[in-house]
Protein: Protein JTB
Amino acid sequence: TVWGLHFSPSLVSTSNLPCWLVEEFVVAEECAPCSNFQAKTTPECGSTGYVEKITCSSTKRSEFKSCRSALMEQHLFWKFEGTVIGVALVFACLVIVRQRQLDRKALEKVRKQIESI
Structure:
């Protein structure tokens, strides 16, 4: 059972799946940035640029598993926050400009009504 999923041996060939998908594992080395050599030779480095070394419990195989580092997540969070604040500021300015236009139109309309009396 992995993430609540049950794999039936007759339906899934486990020989070409990474061992951490089909059995329990222990993290041998924490999530760390890939070295230049790993980036070129380890396919797991491709998606995030970070890997952790894991050891599968029953087969005792050591493999690399792609992971997301806390530092990378923090950078992504602040990029997102900056983008949201930037967009909010742009739209706030647009609202202010539009409100001033509408106020001017309303004042002009009132002025014309007063003049026509």
